[in-house]
Amino acid sequence: MQRKPEQLRSHRWFGAGDLRAFGHRSRAKQMGYAAADFAGKPVIAIVNTWSDLNPCHMHFRTRAEEVKRGVWQAGGFPVELPALSLGETYMKPSTMFYRNLLAMEVEELLRSNPVDGAVLLGGCDKTVPAMIMGATSMNLPALFLPAGPMLRGNYRGDVLGSGSDSWKYWAELRAGAITQADWEEVEEGIARSFGTCMTMGTASTMAAVVEVLGLTLPGASSIPAADSSHARLADACGRRIVDMVWADLKPRDVLSAASFDNAVTVAMALGGSTNAIIHLVAMAGRAGVDLPLARFDEISRRTPLLANLRPSGKYLMEDFYYAGGLRALLSRIPDLLDIGCHTVTGKSLAANIDGAKVHNEDVILPRNRPLKTEGGLAVLYGNLAPGGAVIKQSAMEEKFLKHTGPAVVFRDYNDMAARIDDPKLDVSEKSVLVLKNAGPLGGPGMPEWGMLPIPKKLLQKGVRDMVRISDARMSGTSYGSCVLHVAPESYVGGPLAFVEDGDPILLDVRARKLELQIPKEKLAARRAKWKAPPPRFVRGYGMLFANSASQADRGCDFNFLEGTAPTAEPEIH
Ligand code: FES
Known about the structure:
alpha/beta, Glucose Oxidase, domain 1, 21 helices, binds FE2/S2 (inorganic) cluster, 14 strands, about 15% strand, eight-stranded mixed sheet
């Protein structure tokens, strides 16, 4: 049903005949707008996470103008609202620490201002879930414009992938296999344009997930940032959001248990980032959908990995786009999806992928030739992770799928950094490296420390993978036999806190098991001796985070932000 101008939310600010509305209109005129520019028109917020310290979003100033162009064309009134830019590269201790802050900001920006709908400009890892979480909670018509992946990296004619090749060449440098000059050349060539990491890391995974949830225009998540199609996409977002406002099409009209299952399926078929698990759980929580970790495992077991993209496979996002992009991949698995789900186009997912074709079968593999028969991620349980842990089985050495080895324990990141390369460290390829105090509260913010470096003395012997366990996350561009997100975390007294050097640990990915193989009584005695650390924060945002963030298996959202309980609209006087 089409809404009328007087039914617009912004009408409460601009349409009334009182003194307050006079103030709102006169100040719009102060900004140079005539009544004809805004009166009776949908006000569209362009929420922009541009920043000078976010290289992935460098093009967002231009893209915001392109969105505005589309909004004007469609008869809306665009207003750009800057929001916290979670630049993955520079923010410490971790952008994850601030994801919920951006989610709160987006929700409250939309609530407190005279806006009827929003185009959300994000892309660098945590900006994606944060913006979706905030917009879902506010539930105004909204659509997401992903930043798009950067161009392929280049090093002497070889293709370089974000993150993955940094880790790879860093290991080669530490092993003495390349020179400092070679390493500097890699630095020059690995990030060649604006846009997000172009491997199937967290940014690429989350953009795809948001597209399949139905919150972007079709095909949006695969378009490289520097391609002129991306500018045209921005313009199209501007035009579409105005229609969405008139139709009152909101995020929670689109999001459902089925659409979240679709998102999990696609994350698996892509070999997506482990980070997607935490974010999807949190995003679902904002839409009132319960998404337990076990559901990821069920879906992973039935979903083939079809995207031959790094770090699980060979290619990069630019290749994926030329091969047909996400629409083409979805066209390979309609039987594994609920293609009747609604989307921001006003049409079903089925309509959005109609006619999609795969143009390169080596990049998007056929069903009878998957990269792996199962999805990329597995959820593990056991006495070491009663709340669950995850592993990216598609990006690890197969020999570690079942492995028992003695623990080499680091009490925190600094301890690990100080000792990992110590020639006297008692470690072998069979050891299991354990990092404690790197979880949601221990990190804090669950930094991406989960791909612990291989000790130098093992690197020099040619070792490139070994089993590692932590309550941290790892970058979606990372790889290796890394058990992550152990819940509950060690900082709050989860069993990881009680592991000691030499304890045998069993990892059995096929059986989904993670076990500390010591007698129950010994474990109980260590638990009884454990003392909680003193509070790390006594004021500020850190204290809010420490008091309110849930554990990894619940998505690390703030407990007071979960759910769909209504929040009152602001009074306007
Ligand atoms: Fe921004 Fe990877 S650093 S997406």
